[in-house]
Amino acid sequence: MAEEAYTMTEGKQLLKIAGITVAVYILMKYFLPYVIPFFISYILVHLLKPVTELIYKKLRLRRELILSVLLAALLIVCSLLFYMIYCMLMGQLKRVAMNFDDYYRCFCEGIDECCRFAERNFGVEMEEMRSFVYSGIEHATEQIRIYIVPGIFNYSMRYLKKAMDAALFLLMVFVAAILLMRDYDRMREQLRNYRLYRHVEHISGRMWHQGGMYLKAQAMIIGIVSILCVLGLWLLGNPYFVLLGVAAGLLDALPFIGTGTVLLPVAFFLVLQGSYAKAAGYGVLFFITYVAREFLEPRLIGARLGIYPFVMVVVVYAGLYLYGPSGVVLGPVTLLLILETVRELARE
User: Fold this and answer.
1) In this structure, what are the phi and psi dihedrals at residue 207, rounded to the nearest 5 degrees?
2) Does residue 108 surpass a pLDDT of 60?
3) How many CA atoms lie less than 13 Å away from 160 in the CB half-sphere?
4) Which helix (H) or strand (E) holds 149?
5) Residue from 205, 252, 199 nearest 229 by CA
6) pLDDT number for residue 309
């Protein structure tokens, strides 16, 4: 009887966890997009409130005015940084477009060298392989010409609408943060009279601590890897060191992809050209960035969250599948929300 009772209790616990998992997924997938501006406003108020209170005690200005100035300063700094990076990236993209014919010629030479290598070592006819590869390239180019390029021009108005939506989003965040700051303390005191809010406050407090550590650690790792890539490519004399370095740093955050997606093809292409020293340099840079992430990730993310690094990789991959690119962040947040909700119910 005791064993049957234990089995029933365990079954109820599993059903409860499954129900919480489904509820959290529905919340994150379908409800979060509608409240994300106000959620960001709450985070901004929570982060800037200590600074706001400090300035308020010294100057005795209205808290809403202080927060408005802080948000405007933050927006200006972020916009300037974004503009600087954007100008550098656009300049390097323009250089790529201007030298496209030279790059395409080098690419074709690399293809020919690969075909000659296959003919020497595997007995494959060079002309047959060459015609097969070039037919594939021509087909891809034709698809780009037919579908992608017209789509860019046809959807230019949609891109303009997206820009207007982004501006409206920022305005909504700005206004909501100012209004929330005015009544922040009073609203919290009133909401604490409700039991549900106290549970939400416990869960969000623990998630704030754990999730904040995860986001800071992930941003730190991406920043360090990006800086290593940019510096390494600059030392190697790559004219697109910012473009490729930033791209490699961002790709390194995705599971099973990493900086090798950018660095290793370049190294392989340099080997085909006979630039073995530069190819070795790219290989060393890939090794350094790989070791840096392998060293930092368990210490900054897995260990602090109490989650095994393997589980974190699975969660990020599942997040990418369920939520898209935002799943890099939403996947771990979903896991934390499920764990903290289960712990809160168990604590009660």
Assistant:
1) -65, -35
2) yes
3) 5
4) helix 149-154
5) 252
6) 65
State the chain's mean pLDDT as an integer. Answer: 77
Of the listed ranges 225-234, 263-272, 276-285, the one predicted with least confidence? 263-272
CA distance 10 to 3: 10
Position 220 pLDDT exceeds 80: yes
Place of tokens 């599942």: 318
- Cα 111 to Cα 83, 105, 126, 127, 285: the distances in Å are 38, 10, 10, 11, 25
Is the pLDDT at 130 greater than 80? The verdict is no
Both tokens of 204, joined, read 């969000």
Task: Supply the pTM of this predicted model.
Answer: 0.62
pLDDT value at position 47?
A: 83
- In this prediction, residue 39 carries a pLDDT of 85
Which tokens belong to 81? 């940084």
Average pLDDT over residues 135-161: 60
229 vs 244: CA distance, rounded Å = 8
- DSSP of 222-278, one letter per residue? HHHHHHHHHHHHHHTT-TTHHHHHHHHHHHTTSTTT-THHHHHHHHHHHHHHT-HHH
Q: Specify the amino acid at residue 63.
A: R
Cα–Cα distance measured from residue 53 to residue 68, given in angstroms and rounded to the nearest whole number: 13
* Element of type H or E holding 246: helix 241-251
pLDDT at 146: 59
Q: How many CA atoms lie within 13 A of 129 on its CB side?
A: 16
Which residue in 237, 241, 220, 217 sits closest to 229, CA to CA?
Answer: 241
User: b/e for 95-121, b at 16 or more Cβ within 10 A?
Assistant: eeeeeeeeeeeeeeebbbebbeeebee
